[in-house]
Amino acid sequence: MYCKCGCGQKTKIANRTRSERGWIKGEPKPYLYRHYKRDPNKPMDMLGKGINHKGYEYTTNHALVHRLKAEKALGKKLPKLAVVHHHDGDRSTNKNTNLVVCQDKAYHNLLHQRIRAYNACGDANFRKCPICKEYDSIQNMVNYPEHNRAFFHRECSRIKAKNYYRDKTNAA
Is residue 33 in a domain? Predict the structure, then answer.
């Protein structure tokens, strides 16, 4: 049996009966994984796009459209670890001017951290103290590598430690 979404791919055999999904043990499943969200009545366009569970567009062969556009703009395939960032935060906007290719997930996370800082306080280099939730320059903060390299205000850290030990001794 072929997937009812219209992608043209064969479905797998159901290993158990699940009436809510239309599965009958030993018979082909009606849809491939996550294809039930597509509208089978909607005509497929040139790329045969659909939207996956994370909100990204994909083609009929399940390639992500934003990655394909980035590869076309670069003129070569993206490295395996590369992440494509949407500049405006809208996953459905796949214009070349909206896409930024990041070398890995760590750099992509750094972009998001800097965007949050810039939107909150106007300076992308500031960090957020996890205790007081205020943004400040890293020159005014201390770094504790044992706490996932987080930056704290020294005074916030002292107050937190003081309260922790006070509560620990009162509980005993």
Answer: yes
CA distance 114 to 124: 5
Q: Evaluate whether 23 touches 17 at the Cβ level (below 8 Å).
A: yes
Q: Which domain holds residue 23?
A: 1-43
- For the chain, the domain total comes to 3
Do 113 and 147 fall into the same domain?
Answer: no
Structure token digits, residue 135 = 């943004």
The string of pLDDT tens digits covering residues 50-93 is: 777 777 887 766 788 899 899 999 999 999 899 999 998 888 88
0.90 cut: is pTM over it? Answer: no
Q: What confidence category does residue 164 fall into, taking pLDDT thresholds of 50, 70 and 90?
A: confident
Domain contains 51: no
Give the residues across from 127 on adjacent strands: 136
CA 89, CA 73: separation in Å to the nearest integer?
20
Question: 72: which residues sit within 8 A by CB, 6+ positions away?
Answer: none
Task: Give the chain's end-to-end CA distance (angstroms, integer).
Answer: 66
- Are 104 and 71 in the same domain? yes
Q: What is the pLDDT of residues 5-51, one digit of tens each?
A: 767 788 899 999 988 778 899 999 888 876 765 554 544 443 456 77
Which residues does residue 114 pair with via DSSP β-bridges, in sequence order? Answer: none
Is the separation of the CB atoms in 66 and 86 below 8 Å?
A: yes
